């Protein structure tokens, strides 16, 4: 038997709240975090709203000097904040012999895009001599979110970043799970971070016609599985977990939110953006994660869907769930928390894994909001509009990324 | 002018490294006394260049270790 792995810390910076409790309570209320873009003038963009992080004060987690220099990009700031929350939640100090047994995996789809944009503007305006901060490169390099956390907490084990578009955060957690299972580390700070509500981010995803254009009602725009859905809503933030070898957590009397039980990663090998027919890759990935967790589909009670609110994803994901779970699919609670947070791209897998851990620990299931008109192709129990109390045995979360890259994680109720 | 240069440099250094201006002396070593790292010293050099409309060649920038070094360099170039 491989070593077992517990979730002992959760940290969240999302469009519905800065902080785990704030975020979770907003999800239970069914509150949307989507609104008009304020980070830049979006008036000439086809989509002018997004899920922005609001009221974020970086100096709560770093010095004002670092916030302006070595940690100035928001994708790094969000990761540092969520990582600090998760470590605080875990009540863990990394020192002594633990240092070399603790690592950091933080994924991101795109890294420091805001810094790239600002620096390029300066380059065109001022020329190369005065455009560049010496901190430019360590803001844009994707692994610097993990790097900053390792420096902050003195974690000297494996430290790098999984880059797989919208699956990045899930891959980071899955790989961290494996590292602990294999005995290469006892503690992993892991998840995802993203901050691409910027002109290039909004313009780029807009050019793919992937974003909802519902500018007159931003809070209603993200409506996964609803017949009237018309695209995803770009969002930002970070979700970080502390994973810990279960006996290590027990020995120090740590509170466990959940156990990480299974993981699988694979590829569609089909198309850069479209899912394979019948979600073949997603099906294989969910099945492989179940096998990895040594669970039957019928032992899963909650599925946090990728559920982006695009026409194709939600229909194909529904079909894939039905193929994998058979009759049990009807009993499964399936919700897309993206209906409230929007799509955090590389951070999505991180925050949604955190939501699964919290759902298990709190015995509460967050809803899919904006669900008003059923789609004949999407006919599962999406926990429409209202959160539920439910004692869950196991929860599965799906993350599917451009390039046809898939990741599934399974968490279980922590044993007393 | 000379005094102004010293005041202006001190102000920039204090802002850049977030230390009270009264703690910045001509003898303050950036890396040891003001807790700067090599990257933030580069950032300071850029700020000095911008403030005084100078270009400090890298071979000179590398020799700048203290506030006094900056003041002397700027004085020599501006006067």
Index terms:
heterodimer, A: 416 residues, alpha/beta, Peroxisomal Thiolase, Chain A, domain 1, eleven-stranded mixed sheet, two-stranded antiparallel ribbon, 14 helices, 19% strand, globular, B: 79 residues, mainly alpha, Non-ribosomal Peptide Synthetase Peptidyl Carrier Protein, Chain A, 4 helices, 59% helix, 0% strand
3D structure, described in words:
Chain A folds into two domains: 247 residues, 3-Layer(aba) Sandwich (Peroxisomal Thiolase, Chain A, domain 1), CATH 3.40.47; 150 residues, Thiolase/Chalcone synthase (Peroxisomal Thiolase, Chain A, domain 1, 3-Layer(aba) Sandwich), CATH 3.40.47. Chain A contains 14 helices and 15 strands. In chain A, the strands form three sheets. In chain A, strands 1, 2, 5, 6, 7, 8, 9, 10, 11, 14 and 15 form an eleven-stranded mixed beta sheet that branches. In chain A, strand 14 and strand 15 form a beta hairpin. In chain A, helix 3 packs parallel to helix 7, helix 8 packs across helix 14 and helix 11 packs across helix 12. The longest helix of chain A has 17 residues. The mean pLDDT of chain A is 97. Chain B has a single domain, classed as Non-ribosomal Peptide Synthetase Peptidyl Carrier Protein, Chain A (Orthogonal Bundle). Chain B contains four helices and no strands. At the A-B interface, loops of A face helix 2 of B.
Head-to-tail CA distance between termini of chain A: 20 Å
Average pLDDT, all residues of chain B: 90
Q: What's the helix count of chain A?
A: 14
Q: Which consecutive residue ranges of chain B, at least 5 long each, have pLDDT under 50?
A: none
Number of strands of chain B: 0
Separation of the first and last Cα atoms of chain B: 9 Å
- How many domains of chain A? 2
Indicate the overall shape of chain B: globular
User: Which two chains have the most extensive interface, and how many residues on each?
Assistant: A-B, 11 and 10 residues
| Topology order of chain B in helix (H) and strand (E) letters | HHHH
CATH topology of chain B: Non-ribosomal Peptide Synthetase Peptidyl Carrier Protein, Chain A
Return the CATH architecture of chain B: Orthogonal Bundle
Structural class of chain A: alpha/beta
Measured on Cα atoms, how large is the radius of gyration of chain B? 11 Å
The count of helical stretches of chain B stands at 4
């Amino acid at each position: 038997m491989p070593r077992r792995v517990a979730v002992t810390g959760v940290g969240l910076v999302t469009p519905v709240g800065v902080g785990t409790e704030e975020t979770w309570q907003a999800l239970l209320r069914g509150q949307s975090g989507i609104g008009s873009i304020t980070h830049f003038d979006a008036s000439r963009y086809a989509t002018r709203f997004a899920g922005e992080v609001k009221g974020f004060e970086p100096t709560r987690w770093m010095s004002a000097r670092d916030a302006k220099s070595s940690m100035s990009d928001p994708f790094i700031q969000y990761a540092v904040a969520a990582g600090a929350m998760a470590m605080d939640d875990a009540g863990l100090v990394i020192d002594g012999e633990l240092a070399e047994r603790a690592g950091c995996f933080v994924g991101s789809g795109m890294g420091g895009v805001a810094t790239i944009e600002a620096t390029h503007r300066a380059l065109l305006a001022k020329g190369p001599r005065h455009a560049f901060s010496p901190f430019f490169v360590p803001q844009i390099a994707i692994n610097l979110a993990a790097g900053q956390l390792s420096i902050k907490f003195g974690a000297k084990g494996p430290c790098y970043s999984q880059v797989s578009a919208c699956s990045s955060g899930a891959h980071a957690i899955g790989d961290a799970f494996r590292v602990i299972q294999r005995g290469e580390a006892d503690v992993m700070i892991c998840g995802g971070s993203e901050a691409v509500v910027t002109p290039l981010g909004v313009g780029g995803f807009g050019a793919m016609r992937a974003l909802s254009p519902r500018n007159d009602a931003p809070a209603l725009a993200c409506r996964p599985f609803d017949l009237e859905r018309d695209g995803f809503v770009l969002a930002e933030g970070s979700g970080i977990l502390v994973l810990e070898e279960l006996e290590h957590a027990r020995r120090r009397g740590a509170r466990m939110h959940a156990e990480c039980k299974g993981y699988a990663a694979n590829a569609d090998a089909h198309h850069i953006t479209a899912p394979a027919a019948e979600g073949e890759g997603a099906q294989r990935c969910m099945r492989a994660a179940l096998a990895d967790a040594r669970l039957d589909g019928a032992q899963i009670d909650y599925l946090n869907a990728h559920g982006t609110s695009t026409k194709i994803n939600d229909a194909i994901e529904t079909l894939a769930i039905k193929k994998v779970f058979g009759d049990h699919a009807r009993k499964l609670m399936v919700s897309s928390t993206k209906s409230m947070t929007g799509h955090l791209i590389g951070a999505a897998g991180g925050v949604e894994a955190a939501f699964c851990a919290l759902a298990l620990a709190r015995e509460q299931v967050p809803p899919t909001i904006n669900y008003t008109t059923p789609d004949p192709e999407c006919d599962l129990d999406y926990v429409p509009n209202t959160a539920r109390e439910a004692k869950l045995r196991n929860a599965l979360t799906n993350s599917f990324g451009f390039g046809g890259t898939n990741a599934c994680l399974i968490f279980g109720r922590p044993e007393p | 002018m000379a005094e102004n240069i010293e005041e202006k440099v001190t102000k920039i250094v204090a802002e850049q490294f977030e230390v009270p201006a009264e703690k910045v002396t001509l003898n303050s070593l950036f890396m040891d006394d003001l807790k700067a790292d090599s990257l933030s010293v580069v950032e300071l050099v850029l700020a000095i260049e911008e403030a005084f409309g100078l270009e400090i060649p890298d071979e000179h920038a590398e020799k700048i270790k203290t506030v006094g070094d900056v003041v002397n360099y700027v004085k020599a170039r501006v006067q």
